[in-house]
Design brief:
The radius of gyration is 20 Å and the shape is globular. It has 17 helices and nine strands. Helix 14 packs across helix 15 and helix 15 packs parallel to helix 17. Bound molecules: ligand G3I.
Length: about 400
């Protein structure tokens, strides 16, 4: 039996064993007559919402419970280093999340840095954290052009490259067999800027015009863990620009190709690395979600965070705009019933890849995540909560 995130399954994930009446079934929408700032600011939001519906217990107010009420699973990425560096992080994640994904530790460069010497120590730290905190585990990522061990680089481009990659999928998915609910089997194979007519990344293993390798990776993953849901995962689909349109077109071609080859694909991951200031068109994004859902796959928002690099330094203004930007995106995303999972890429501003990869010019830290560096809820946390509350129920 394959695992499915049905409404009941999502409730099971959060420990809720009975349906909970959610705001969607209540007569007064929390949106009505409430200013954005009031809705998004912590205590104010609680007080206002408290006047609109009966008070919820702390557990029922968690993001995972709000999500589960509508058949959605909420979670976050976490790294072994951040769990160690920030003792409060694990508890914060356990409170709000139903699923976790290792930020790096399952990548090839971590699990087999030396050929034929598998090393799952770091990824097992996350798996143990998940098991002891009643969290499900997401797998990221079997195949990615980045973070591959140095020893593979020459081999990957040669005639044995195909088999080497398929073996890698088999190894890592097989190692976690029965423990991972969703796997990113292939990550980031799209790059129209590389100029190939098929819009695929110019990475030697991806033969032009042929997605046979990707299809074979999905077959290997299914064989290695028949119960895991298998995803293609990528970025740059969220905004209204020519570049992102060509990425969306390439994604549709990949889905067509995989379906034509009967690849066992269950889901499509939209990373959702958002950036305040980018142009978001609800219609364009809605259409893309519908186009992907038409392939009869579920959609997970796998790596949500909001880059505030273009914003002025004022913290209140940044936090408001970050929340507002995410809220617009999530409201459209959750309107699509195929969207069943949301994960943030990190849970607290104490630890985010953006500070090293895309630092702000004023040297202030970015504020892209639901909790601040002291683990207090930010407007983004409340924006996610509100979008989850307003999401239509999944079938
Ligand atoms: O562990 C070493 C540490 O020993 C060393 O001192 C330090 C010095 O730079 O580097 C550490 O490794 C870094 C690692 O993150 C852990 O912090 C790597 O250099 C750095 O490249 C790596 O970056 C990760 C990146 O993927 C590349 O693997 C980010 O944490 C991670 O957030 C990012 O995640 C990706 C997703 O997998 C795919 N989608 C995009 C997303 C953001 O780029």
């Amino acid at each position: 039996m394959k695992k499915r995130y049905s409404n009941n399954f999502a409730q099971h994930l959060t420990g809720l064993d009975r349906p909970v009446a959610g705001p969607a079934s209540e007569p007064t929408s929390p949106r009505a007559g409430v200013t954005r700032r009031a809705v998004l600011s912590g205590i104010g939001a609680t007080a206002l919402l408290g006047s609109l519906r009966p008070a919820l217990g702390a557990e029922e107010q968690s993001l995972k419970a709000r999500a589960a009420r509508h058949g959605i699973t909420f979670g976050s990425a976490v790294s072994a280093a951040s769990l160690k560096d920030f003792p409060e992080l694990g508890a914060a994640i356990a409170r709000d999340c139903a699923v976790v994904v290792p930020e790096n530790e399952m990548k090839w460069g971590w699990t087999e840095n030396v050929r034929n010497r598998p090393d799952y120590k770091a990824s097992e730290v996350i798996a143990r954290f998940a098991a002891t905190s009643d969290l499900r585990l997401r797998g990221h990522t079997a195949i990615w052009y980045k973070n591959i061990p140095a020893w593979t680089k020459a081999a990957i481009s040669g005639p044995g490259g195909h088999d080497l990659l398929v073996k890698r999928v088999h190894d890592v998915v097989g190692h976690f067999r029965g423990r991972v609910v969703e796997w990113d089997v292939v990550n980031e194979s799209i790059e129209p800027r590389d100029g190939r007519p098929d819009g695929m990344r110019n990475w030697p293993p991806f033969a032009p015009g042929d997605i046979g390798l990707i299809a074979d990776c999905f077959h290997a993953a299914r064989e290695a863990d028949p119960d895991a849901l298998l995803f293609y995962n990528d970025y740059g689909f969220e905004y209204d620009s020519d570049d992102e349109q060509s990425r969306r077109d390439a994604a549709i071609r990949i889905m067509e190709g995989l379906k034509k080859r009967n690849a066992p694909i269950d889901g499509f991951g939209i990373q959702s690395h958002l950036k305040v200031g980018n142009r978001f068109s609800p219609d364009v994004f809605r259409q893309f979600l519908a186009d992907i859902a038409a392939f009869n796959v579920r959609i997970s928002l796998t790596e949500l965070d909001v880059n505030d690099q273009r914003m002025p330094s004022d913290i209140e203004e940044r936090d408001d705009q970050v929340a507002d930007h995410a809220r617009q995106f999530l409201d459209v995303a959750f309107d699509e019933r195929a969207v069943t999972t949301l994960l943030t890429w990190g849970f607290s501003d104490a630890s985010t890849w953006l500070n090293s990869a895309q630092p702000r010019k004023d040297n202030l830290k970015q504020r892209p995540l639901p909790l601040d560096e002291n683990f207090a809820k930010k407007p983004l946390w409340h924006a996610i909560a509100q979008s989850l509350d307003n999401a239509p129920d999944r079938p």
